[in-house]
Amino acid sequence: MNRNFILTTNAGKYVLRQVLSHSHYRRSSDLEFELSYLNYLRKAGFPYAVPSAIPTRTRKLFAKLRQRYFWLYKFIEGRVIEKLNESHFAQLTRMMGTYHQLIEKSRLDNEEPSLDLYGRHSTLKEIESYGLEILRKHRKTREDITFMEESARLIPLLHSLDEGPYSNLKRYPIHRDIIPENLIWQGPKLVGLLDFEHVSGTNEPTVKDIAVTLQSVCRDKKVKHRLDLKLATRFLQHYRKWHSLSKREVQLIPNLLVSGFIEDFAWTYWMLRNDPERATPDALKLCSRAALRSYEDREEITQALLSQG
Predict the structure, then answer these.
(1) Exposed (0-12), middle (13-18) or buried (19+): which is 226, by Cβ within 10 Å?
(2) Is-contact 35 62, C-beta < 8 A?
(3) Packing angle between helix 229-239 and helix 86-105, nearest 10 degrees?
(4) Is residue 22 over pLDDT 60?
(5) Does pTM surpass 0.85?
(6) Where are the domains of the chain?
(7) Is a pLDDT exceeding 80 seen at residue 115?
(8) Which CATH number does 78-117+147-306 carry?
(9) What is the pLDDT of residue 191?
């Protein structure tokens, strides 16, 4: 969780970004890598706006104050469209395909080992940490009880995911959060991409980006914890116009959906504890049901997504 402050000046609007997340920025070099990553995208001709750090008076790209990092960039004009439809997919997939090609051609290296497949270790460690804190409580909230009950269902799922196919794919420092909240639109046109905080901490195959986006924009309208397979299939059809997608990558999507929803489950509990005004209590069960449903439907999802390959 980071904070953004909008600054309006005579010279225009700017965003002052306060870095709070210790999970993504354990050291200053993590932020340095993120800013160099953004600089690479601009120099490589990425045709969408991304945050661009404005140097301080001492020519540094960020400042440190009371154990917090701050950096400034020009405000990217536009708006967020919360619910994307298929008419938006053509632009979104074009942006993703272009982005993935640039990252695959780059030599960007965040020097992080690619050992935590499916984010299993980090997610299990986070869930275990929360569980121990809950057990030490004298009074448990409704959310605490829900977290413990649903965790017992989800942990075996995460343990059971087959690492074999995943371990053979090349991995890169990718965005990992290409969702509607991080897309900037001007009218009907996609113009920008925000929030690259994950790029310094993990390495994933580019299909991970696709799975995260499917989680967000291809939900069934009637059953929120179910993936709309027709919509997801059409999304992949659009993506293939701009970037290749192998059968092996498509076969990974169901497992990536399962691990992604479990990550969202842990994140939701963090939000309930640290930012309750913006958190949704029912989201714990929703994330758990989505993970369970994706696990149960893995074969169906795979066959549907491969049907148009």
Answers:
(1) middle
(2) yes
(3) 50
(4) no
(5) yes
(6) 78-117+147-306
(7) no
(8) 3.90.1200.10
(9) 98
Q: How many CB atoms lie within 10 A of CB 214?
A: 22
How far apart, in whole angstroms, are the C-alpha atoms of residue 18 and residue 65?
A: 10
**What separation, in Å, do the N-terminal and C-terminal C-alpha atoms of the chain show?**
37
* Tens digit of each residue's pLDDT (9 = 90 or more) over 88-111: 999 999 999 999 999 999 999 998
Which of 158, 163, 193 is CA-nearest to residue 175?
A: 193
DSSP class per residue in 13-63: EEEEEEE--TTT-SSHHHHHHHHHHHHHHHHTT-SSB---BPP-TTS-S-E
Place of tokens 């390495």: 203
Give the number of other CB atoms < 10 A from CB of residue 161.
19
Query: What pLDDT, in 10s, does the model give residues 185-244?
Result: 999 999 999 999 999 988 999 999 999 999 999 998 888 789 999 999 999 999 999 999
